[in-house]
Amino acid sequence: MFGNLINLIETDEHRLLRETVRKFVKDKVAPRASEIDEKDEFPEDIFKEMAEIGITGILIPEEYGGFGDDVLSAVIVLEEIARESASLALSLLAHSVLGAHPITRFGNPEQKKKYLPKLAKGEMIGALAITEPDAGSDNASITTIAKEEDDKFIITGSKIFITNGSIAGLVILYAKTSPEKGKDGISAFIFETNVPGFSVSKNFEKIGMRGSPTSTLFFENAPCPKENLLGEKDKGFNILVKCFEVERITIAAISLGIAISALEWQIRYSRERKQFGVPISEFQMIGEKIANTTAELEVVRTYIYLLAKNYDVNKDNRVESATAKLLAGELGVKASLDAIQILGGYGYTKEYPVERYLRDAKLMDIGAGTSEIMRYIISNVMLKKYLV
Description:
The chain has 388 residues and is α+β, with helices and mostly antiparallel strands. It has twelve helices and ten strands. It has three domains: 4-125, Butyryl-Coa Dehydrogenase, subunit A, domain 1; 127-236, Butyryl-CoA Dehydrogenase, subunit A, domain 2 (Beta Barrel); 238-385, Butyryl-CoA Dehydrogenase, subunit A, domain 3 (Up-down Bundle), CATH 1.20.140.10. The protein has helices at residues 4-9, 12-29, 33-39, 44-52, 71-82, 86-106, 109-120, 236-272, 284-309, 318-343, 354-363, 371-385, and strands at residues 126-129, 145-149, 152-163, 170-176, 186-192, 198-200, 214-225, 229-230, 274-275, 278-279. It has a four-stranded mixed sheet with strand order 1-4-5-8. Helix 2 runs parallel beside helix 5 and helix 10 (318-343) runs antiparallel to helix 11 (354-363).
C-alpha cells in the first residue's frame, strides 16, 4: 500500500522472502493470532512449521543450515510476522537474534558447528539472559557469578524477564568472571539449560505479547563447560554492546509490523464507518491521523531498511540502532492508539485486534532498552563525539 523507496532497498531475493513469509503468516498465523493472545500459550506447532520453511534460521549462515547472516532479511521476516502476531515475532527474535546471532558473530568454529544447525532447524530454542532484578538498563551491575572450577564454570545468580526462558534449550548468558572489574569483568557463555542447578519460574502474566513466554531463570551452582565460553573471558560486555545493535534494529521491525496493521485498520474502518451520512474518513481530523501515521511510517521504515541493509559490525552503530528502536517503538504505540480512537467504542473491545496491537506495542518502549535509555545513548554518544 506504500513503500516505493523500500523497493529500491530490497533485492529480488528479499522480495521473494517477503512473499513466502506473508503467505505463511496468512495461512498459519493470522487464523490463530487471537487465540495465541487469549490462551497465552506458545504455539509450538507453528514454530515447527516456521522451521520447516527456514524462518528459524535467520541470521544463521547457510553453511550451518540457516537462511544467511543478513540483517535486512531478519527485519523483513519479523515485520511480516508481527503484522499478525507480534508475540510470535518476539519469540522468533529471542531465538534467532538473541540466541543464534551471538554465536554466528562471536562463536568459534566448534561452537558454530555444534549449535547453529540445531538452532537453524528449530531443534533447540534460543534466548538471551542478561537482565536481573537489580540490573535492568544498568547491565554493568549484574551480580550473577561464573567461577572457574576445573574444566567448567559454576554459575550462581538469577535472570528476570527472559523471553523464551521457559522453552529455551540454550541461552546466551552473561555473568561476572571477575566481579572486581565491573563491566570489564563480564563474560558471555553458551549455556545449555538441561543441567542440574538450573530452574525456571512460572511464566509472567503480561498485558501484552501473550503467547511469548517470559520467566525468571535461576542458577544454583549450575555447570557450564569451559568450551562454552563465548569469546574471551572478561570480554563479554563488548559482545553485548554489538549484539544490542542488531537487537535494536530488528526489534524495531516488530514495531513496524504493528504500526502497519494499525494503519490498515485506521483506513479500513474509517472508510466503512458512517456518521452524519458520510464515511468518517472524510472528516479532517480522521484524515490527519491517517496522514501522520503514514508519513512517520514512510520515514522510519525506510531508515530502518537502509540501516539493516548497510549494517557493518565493524562500525559503531549505537546511535543509529538506538534511533531505529526509539522512533519505531513510539510509532507503534501512537499508531495503535490512533486506531483505537478511530474505531471508537469498538476499538476498546476485543472484537477488533487494535487493542492487542496497543498492548503488544507498549513493550517495544520498554524491552531491549527503554525509550529513555535510547535517548540517553544517543545524547551521550553525540556529546562525546562532538566534544570541542
